[in-house]
Write a structure and sequence with these properties.
Number of strands: 0
Largest sheet: none
Number of helices: 2
Helix content: 40-55%
Oligomer: single chain
Mean pLDDT: 87
Shape: flat
Radius of gyration: 17 Å
Order of helices and strands: HH
Structural class: mainly alpha
């Protein structure tokens, strides 16, 4: 197994286990508590979120 493949496999495992989502939440929580985030410049992009079936217009 190449080093690239081993790294890819480990990153995939972490992604499936939710490691990156938890890490991002922790980072944002700590930065927000320290007053280091400017939420006036934040933007929510829901283009990748699927609508629930009962809310779908199609």
């Amino acid at each position: 197994m190449s080093l690239f493949h081993a790294a890819f496999v480990q990153m995939e495992r972490w992604q499936q286990a939710g490691v990156f989502d938890r890490l991002l939440r922790i980072l944002l929580t700590e930065l927000n508590a320290a007053g280091e985030l400017d939420w006036s410049r934040a933007c929510a992009d829901g283009s990748h979120i699927r609508a629930r079936a009962e809310q779908s217009s199609g």
